[in-house]
């Protein structure tokens, strides 16, 4: 099999299971973090550690913001969370798509980078960046093959001037659609709870190891996690039990 077809097949397979990789990395990250906390590695200064942790949260929220700005300006059946097959009823070329071809994967990168940074382990973060690059490179290749076959020259003309992963902000073009909070709340309700819950789990594990006992502290991370979970449950109810978040063609 030619390398082009092999990359495409690998990308299509990884696309279906792209939610699995973060879970594996998260599990390894928990082990690394637990080891380092147990042996007293990482940042020890109380002032610096709090600043660092908030920086990790900011990094993850930046990724979520990128996803929100992407999804909010796109039409129906584009930029979705579909897992079985690629779906694109039309080609997005304006808004954030005028600056980068794969903004959702850029957002995913920062969301998971924040969690990876929380381990305070330099080599784990470096490993995460490398694995993410190799893994999503295949997925992006398969996605671009799909778009190239479906949209032909229109896709080639757009891709010729827009970078794949590192945004080129000077290429910005105003979105053709208005921003839809309803679409964002429907599709991105998982993102906020995932960020806040994961960081809280790290914090809880660290406190448990340091105190040699499970201690629930009602601090910033606890209330952040609680807010994320409650918000998720409310949005899930509104999505499946009401029509409040429905919007025509979005």
Map the helices and strands.
Elements (H helix, E strand, L loop, with lengths): L2 H14 L3 H19 L7 H26 L31 H15 L4 H30 L1 H9 L19 H7 L1 H23 L8 H22 L9
Q: Overview of this structure, please?
A:
This protein is mainly α and 250 residues long. The chain has helices spanning 3-16, 20-38, 46-71, 103-117, 122-151, 153-161, 181-187, 189-211, 220-241. It has one domain (3-183). The longest helix has 30 residues, at 122-151.
Strand elements, count? 0
Fraction in beta strands: under 5%
Computed Rg:
20 Å
Q: Write down the overall mean pLDDT.
A: 91
Question: Cα distance, first to last residue?
Answer: 39 Å
Name the structural class: mainly alpha
Give the oligomer, counting copies of the same chain as homo and different chains as hetero: single chain
**Tally of separate domains:** 1
Largest sheet composition:
none
Q: Percentage of helical residues?
A: 55-70%
| Topology order in helix (H) and strand (E) letters | HHHHHHHHH
Q: Report low-confidence residues grouped into runs of 5 or more.
A: none
């Amino acid at each position: 099999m030619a390398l082009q077809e092999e990359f495409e097949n690998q990308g299509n397979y990884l696309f279906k299971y792209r939610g699995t990789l973060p879970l594996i990395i998260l599990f390894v990250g928990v082990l690394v973090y637990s080891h380092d906390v147990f042996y007293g590695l990482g940042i020890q200064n109380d002032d610096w550690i709090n600043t660092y942790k908030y920086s990790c949260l900011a990094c993850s929220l930046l990724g979520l913001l990128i996803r929100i700005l992407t999804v909010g300006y796109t039409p129906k059946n584009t930029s979705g969370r579909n897992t079985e097959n690629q779906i694109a009823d039309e080609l997005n070329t304006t808004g954030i798509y005028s600056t980068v071809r794969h903004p959702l994967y850029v957002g995913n990168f920062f969301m998971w980078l924040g969690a990876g940074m929380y381990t305070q382990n330099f080599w784990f973060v470096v490993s995460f960046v490398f694995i993410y690059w190799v893994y999503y490179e295949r997925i992006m290749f398969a996605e671009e093959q799909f778009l190239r076959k479906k949209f032909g020259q229109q896709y080639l003309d757009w891709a010729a001037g827009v970078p794949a992963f590192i945004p080129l902000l000077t290429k910005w073009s105003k979105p053709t659609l208005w921003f839809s909070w309803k679409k964002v709340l429907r599709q991105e309700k998982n993102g906020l709870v995932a960020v806040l819950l994961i960081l809280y789990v790290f914090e809880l594990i660290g406190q448990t190891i340091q105190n040699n006992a499970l201690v629930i502290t009602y601090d910033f991370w606890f209330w952040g996690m609680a807010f994320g979970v409650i918000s998720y449950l409310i949005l899930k109810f509104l999505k499946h039990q009401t029509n409040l978040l429905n919007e025509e063609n979005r």
